[in-house]
Amino acid sequence: MSVLILNIKQLLQVHESNVTIIKGKEMKELSMLENAYIYIDHDTIIEYGKMEDYRTIEADTIIDATGKIVLPSWCDSHTHVVYAGDRTSEFVDRINGLSYEEIANKGGGILNSAKVLQDTSEDDLYNQSIKRVNELIAMGTGAIEIKTGYGLTVDAEMKMLSVIKRIKQESLAVIIPTLLAAHAIPSEFKSKKKDYIKLITEELIPKASELNIAHFIDVFCEEGYFDIKETNTILEAAKSYDLRPKIHVNQFNILGGIALGVKHNALSVDHLEELNEKDIEALKGSDTMPVALPGCSYFLSIPYTPARKLIDAGLPLAIASDYNPGSSPSGNMNFVVSSACVKLKMTPEEAINAATVNGAYAMGISNMYGSITRGKKANLLITKPMNHYSEIPYAFAHNPIEQVIINGQLL
Ligand code: NIG
Ligand code: FE
Predict the structure, then answer these.
(1) Family assignment (predicted)?
(2) Which of 83, 152, 157 is closest to 111 using CA atoms?
């Protein structure tokens, strides 16, 4: 199966030599070919160039992309897309004045989602979740990190891992599973938190590792959830199972989770709505990708990650959806790219770099995804006709995507 796309108005994120991360000032540059073609065979990008240099190539499918933009599909490095039910009643509670914290303290929030998930069969959980994954693919996302974390018991976490494994097998998108081993304290462990940490380190992590599904370990490092010491204990335990950290830090409070993540060579530290100079210093010179989640800030009305401070300090930045029922019930990466521009003051070039190459980096797959480079996987999206790629973030909440190609397959 080969696909040839001709007359592309703008072919974005084109790199002759492979690029796996884009940092600081470089994020303002988006390499591009105008009036271009691209040829893909099976799941691989074989050739691309300017139309003036195009010489006939035979292909099974030929697409005329006159007036349209082609770019790598979105790489969403942070989602909780496997969940059961929804939290619409808490949404209304928040509109009526309760805070996210107050709802959680009443036994709502993550505990609420965990209860529903525990009572949902594996098949039902799969059916609810794959539907969302398919919606994400149709909106241009080609690679998706999916976390556990709504189980809160060993059995329910195993159920989540099985569902993620099934999604990975059945979906065309690239699925990167993460064991969110420490997401909240179940009520029965409220007065014996130490026992719960023990359960995580001595039962959950070993058992999950046996299944060999998760690539990464995650902890919600936050006041009222897991403090620095507890997070450290959990990351230490995960190390012997080769689970590299990708952690939730600085969503509401600065506890020092960024420096801790860097110390453990975390692949990413995510949220960062709160951020200080020490955090920025800790990230400098590290291999850890900071990840902003503007959908969460939008939905919870909390501060937006100070992207300018990070990028202007020479650091890279990725953006992701944080798709989950409580703090970001949307996985639309087109909206994430748009809100990165509008609210994080990122330029369209920076936002597109953050949602492609850097998103792929934050999943450990940027050697094969996230840019248009010969030999990389053909995960592409074709937009509706537009004058310039800046219209993708400009026309917020529109769907700019016309067609999606995942691993060389036209959807
Ligand atoms: O990334 N912050 C922790 N976890 C999720 C929200 C979980 C929930 O409210 O269900 C997040 O925002
Ligand atoms: Fe999250």
Answers:
(1) Belongs to the metallo-dependent hydrolases superfamily. HutI family.
(2) 152
Mean pLDDT along residues 89-110:
94
Average pLDDT over residues 238-266: 98
Q: Which ligand places an atom closest to the C-alpha of 114?
A: 1
Q: Distance between CA atoms of 25 and 277, rounded to whole angstroms?
A: 19
| C-alpha–C-alpha distance, residues 298 and 149, integer Å | 22
Task: Give the 3-state secondary structure of residue 102.
Answer: helix
Please state the atom number of ligand 1 nearest to the C-alpha of residue 100: 9
Determine the Cα–Cα distance for residues 406 and 399; give it in Å rounded to an integer. 18
In short, whether 341's Cβ falls inside 6 Å of ligand 1 is no
Give every CB contact of residue 183 below 8 A, 6+ residues apart in sequence. Answer: 110, 149, 150, 152, 218, 220, 225
Q: Is residue 106's pLDDT more than 90?
A: no
**Residue 113 beta carbon below 6 angstroms from any ligand 1 atom:** yes
Query: What homologous superfamily does CATH list for 2-72+368-410?
Result: Urease, subunit C, domain 1 (2.30.40.10)
13 CB under 6 A from ligand 1? no
**Over the stretch 301-310, which tens digit does the pLDDT of each residue have?**
999 999 999 9
Residue 143 backbone phi and psi in degrees, to 5 = -140, 130
Q: Does residue 5 surpass a pLDDT of 90?
A: yes
What residue owns the CA closest to ligand 1's atom 10?
A: 326
Structure confidence by residue, pLDDT tens digits, 13-29: 999 999 999 999 999 99
Residue 205 has pLDDT above 90, yes or no: yes
> Nearest ligand to the C-alpha of residue 117?
1
CATH of domain 75-361: 3.20.20.140
Relative to beta strand 32-41, strand 61-64 is unpaired
248 is in an annotated binding site: yes
Ligand 2 centroid–CA 168 distance in Å is 19
220 Cβ inside 6 Å of ligand 1: yes
Domain with CATH 3.20.20.140 in the chain: 75-361
pLDDT digits (tens, 9 = 90+) for 335-344: 999 999 999 9
Q: Cβ(248) to ligand 1 under 6 A?
A: yes
pTM exceeds 0.95 for this model = yes
